[in-house]
UniProtKB/TrEMBL annotation:
SMART domains attached to this UniProt entry: LRRCT (SM00082)
Organism name: Caenorhabditis nigoni
The entry's keywords: Leucine-rich repeat, Repeat, Signal
Lineage top rank: taxon: Eukaryota
Higher taxonomy: Eukaryota, Metazoa, Ecdysozoa, Nematoda, Chromadorea
InterPro entries found in the cross-reference section: Cys-rich_flank_reg_C (IPR000483), Leu-rich_rpt (IPR001611), LRR_dom_sf (IPR032675), Wnt_signaling_inhibitor (IPR052286)
Protein name per Swiss-Prot or TrEMBL: LRRCT domain-containing protein
GO cellular component: membrane
Length: 332
């Protein structure tokens, strides 16, 4: 009994240690650890982004802040943490807050921020906010996973996103995550604003090809194109991939293997640019007996075009529906 009481007392002491000061003390979803500079409010259902001021008002050492699962919609038009510079802040997680408007001054006074996560939001880029990232020149990781609203004009939105990247001058950025964003075409200059980029994550989009400025990705070590719509590997992508570093690309897709696939299969077997290529399989095949077969092993001389591979517009729409449904599952 004494041991049980001691355990309860220990847990209570830990909980009390993490209780926040100020207004955030009223929310069990908020935990504050001033010794580590770590502050979080997860699923607290805040609607007013001014709650960030409560952290800067009560604490001087701020290293990591996570506000996930709230309902801000708009970031503040003034700096999130007020007028004082937050020189120690290196990680800011604003994911899953239904953010629509970023506001250009929201990240001001965070000069040493290294990790920014604005995933799982409904962001709409506006011309007046393209300097949103100019206040965080030392970013090394930027996560924008399922960050944009589905219904907006994609071409215009991605043009504004690319302009935001250009203006930010993120010379130290190593990781850019744009997965789960319903992207059909990647901007040609996508890698150019980031001279130190090492990882570009484009998983779970609607890409059928990947054509970008090859000089801007020559030093990138990982480009993840898995779970897109690469049923075959187009000629122009192969030419691009041949100039990339070894094992740069991840390409787990639903590949079709038939008599028309021999060229891309031959290339896939010989290239060094595709990581885990020996694990890739034929999702659909003619004849059907090769469904699930490893592409590296399927006999080319036995592939036929006798079986329909469902490449119709109707199947494409159905695939898009499945991907959209999967993305929504990830949110909830």
């Amino acid at each position: 009994m004494l041991l049980i009481n001691s355990l309860f007392s220990f847990e209570e002491a830990i909980e009390n240690k993490l209780i926040c000061a100020g207004k955030l003390a009223d929310y069990a979803a908020c935990q504050c650890d001033p010794s580590a500079g770590d502050y979080s409010c997860i699923n607290a259902q805040f609607v007013d982004a001014n709650v960030f001021l409560d952290i800067s008002t009560n604490y001087k050492y701020i290293k990591s802040v996570t506000f996930h699962g709230n309902n801000f919609q708009d970031l503040t038009s003034t700096p999130l943490f007020g007028s004082d510079s937050q020189n120690s802040l290196i990680k800011l997680n604003l994911s899953a807050n239904y953010i629509v408007n970023l506001n250009s001054n929201a990240l001001r006074n965070m000069p040493n921020l290294q990790v920014l996560d604005i995933s799982n939001n409904e962001i709409v880029f506006r011309p007046r906010d393209v300097d949103f990232l100019t206040h965080t020149p030392h970013l090394t990781q930027l996560y924008m996973r399922r960050a944009f609203t589905v219904t907006m004009n994609r071409t215009q939105q991605f043009d504004l996103m690319l302009e935001m990247f250009r203006q930010a001058k993120l010379e130290y950025l190593q990781v850019l995550d744009l997965s789960y964003n319903f992207i059909h075409n990647v901007p040609f200059e996508i890698g150019c604003p980031f001279p130190a980029l090492q990882t570009l994550d484009l998983r779970q989009n609607f890409l059928k090809n990947f054509i970008v400025n090859e000089t801007c990705i020559k030093d990138v070590k990982t480009i993840n194109l898995s779970r897109n719509q690469f049923y075959v590997i187009p000629d122009d992508f192969r030419a691009l991939a041949n100039k990339a570093q070894p094992e740069t690309f991840l390409l787990r897709n639903q590949f079709y293997c038939d008599c028309n696939s021999k060229d891309f299969i031959t290339w896939l077997r010989s290239t060094k640019s595709v990581r885990e290529k020996n694990s890739l399989v034929c999702d659909r095949a003619s004849p059907k007996m090769y469904i699930g077969a490893r592409i590296a092993e399927v006999p080319l001389n036995k592939l036929t075009c006798d079986e329909p591979l469902f490449t119709s517009h109707a199947f494409s729409n159905f695939a898009n529906f499945l991907i959209l449904a999967f993305c929504l599952i990830q949110i909830f």
